[in-house]
Amino acid sequence: MNLAALFGGPTDPAIDCGGRLIVFDRPRIMAVLNRSPDSFSDGGAHAVLDDAVEHALRLVAEGADLLDIGGESTRPGAAAVSVQVELDRVLPLIERLRGQLTVPISIDTSKPEVMRAAVAAGAGLINDVRALRGDGALAAAAELGVPVCLMHMQGAPASMQDAPHYEDVLADVKGFLAERLFACQLAGIDKKQLLVDPGFGFGKTRQQNLALLAGLRRFTDLGCPILVGLSRKRLIGEVTGRELDQRLHGSVAAALLAVERGAAMVRVHDVGATRDALAMLAALAPYRALAAAGTSAKPTSPTWDEDA
Asked: Does the annotation mark 261 as catalytic?
């Protein structure tokens, strides 16, 4: 799977997460670990620190390339929490994990105080659903120098699903992300350290989410790796008719569809199933070119990291 071709570079793009490199030579998996009691999928499941550590290690063992830790729910209708509450939820876990993990830790936050404290504790990437629009967030990210994922969200979590409207959802979301990329570069953040996320489910209807997924490849024009988070979301339930705890298969299918359309990283809850599905997709990739050329000669099959 030639991700370098999507981003226009001669080699596979990579981001330096505090000394731990993620190379996009294949689609990468960001595992979700929420410590907020009201997260839409696993709220309260990892409130006990020892349980959260055990779950984090299990996610990495299943094949996660990066662990995304959050302390504030951004589900539709969620209320904001204080800086101190968020710090109390995420810092003990990051501090416990930093010496045990071989993969980078991402901090899912919009608060500059949390960004600084989390990076000091060992986080190597900032995942901001507000795309560094909060007071002081852009300056903090520029100061810290770690990679940042910029996500699109219309409105705020408390009200974002109240009749979201776009003139053209693809053009509007892409234009927003282009503007945020420009703002980051003006602030001194290297574009090579930036990722973009269209923000599925963040101020979008079912139809708007599906339009974004169908047209996802258009976002590769922005020149940054694309992160997609569709795991267990309402869209999966709306399409499949499944309740939250039954959305594994739809989530894995959505991850594959996103990667087929240019996603460089998928943010998921179910790491093992996603990893296996992506391995099958990668194994098929060299045969597609042969099939298109009308030959069945045996190509050199790529290996997943664990198989090398």
From this structure: no
